[in-house]
Specification:
This protein is 23% helix and 33% strand. With 231 residues, the protein is α+β, with helices and mostly antiparallel strands. It has a 7-stranded mixed sheet, sandwiched between helices. A 3-stranded antiparallel sheet has the order 2-5-4, with helices on one face. It is globular, with a radius of gyration of 19 Å.
Length: 231
């Protein structure tokens, strides 16, 4: 069992499930210190979710995504919204740390806001061992597919899941001539991934003193301006 500061550990012999979320009364700051017991899992962060703080507990190492492990990518439904939102807030902690800003929109997004996105976006999820390990969303505007919030559970990063989700969302919008997305100019890991997938920076926008967004695009192979993928 995992506990936060000043709370008592009960039944230490009980091991957590492969992947769990515990909810505790609301706190005011993010991130929070967390104390934990148990050799297989560790408490990663507390994410403010409105009425509760969410403790995310990482799974045991033996269930990390590996080559050959079965992972399904499929469309997400309304029943997945809460889990995707929770994963989004966990995944964007590293982005918040890069920019020194924990008030970024992905961490502030509410359940009602993501529910509205579900009405005009396609959401995909990557499932492994019955849990959502990653997600991406997109919508079509004219001849452009606008891709947003590619997220991967931190414990599954570096396993090719982000690349697989990008390929799947592009396939969903394969009739569109152009794909577009954006990220922060200091998010080097993201930029490296997108450029490896054939995207190119075409403009930037300074949105605050600490954040400059870079916009990347890629044309489909069948379009007049398209270029061949490098993979």
């Amino acid at each position: 069992m995992y506990t936060s500061a000043n709370s008592k550990v009960k039944n230490e012999s009980k091991r957590p499930r492969d992947h769990e979320y515990l909810r505790l009364p609301i706190r005011t700051l993010l991130p929070h210190p967390v104390f934990f017991v148990g050799p297989l899992c560790r408490a990663s962060r507390l994410i403010n979710m409105g009425m509760y703080d969410l403790i995310y507990m990482e799974p045991p190492r033996e269930i990390y995504l590996k080559n050959g492990q079965s992972t399904r990518i499929l469309k997400a439904g309304a029943a997945d919204m809460e889990e995707i939102l929770a994963l989004q807030k966990i995944a964007y902690i590293t982005e918040a740390e890069i920019y020194g800003d924990f008030d970024i929109p992905p961490l502030r997004q509410t359940y009602d806001e993501i529910a509205r996105e579900f009405s005009d976006h396609v959401f995909l999820k990557a499932e492994t061992k019955g849990r959502i390990a990653g997600s991406v969303r997109a919508r079509g505007i004219d001849d452009t597919c606008q891709i947003g919030r590619l997220i991967v559970d931190p414990v599954f990063r570096g396993q090719g899941l982000g690349t697989a989700l990008m390929a799947a969302i592009e396939k969903e919008f394969e009739t569109f001539k152009r794909y577009e997305l954006f990220t922060g100019d200091r998010s080097e890991r993201n930029i490296t991934l997108y450029e490896r997938l054939g995207y190119h920076i075409y403009r930037s926008e300074q949105v605050s003193s600490s954040l400059c967004l870079v916009f990347l695009e890629k044309y489909s192979k069948g379009s007049r301006q398209g270029t061949a993928d490098t993979d």
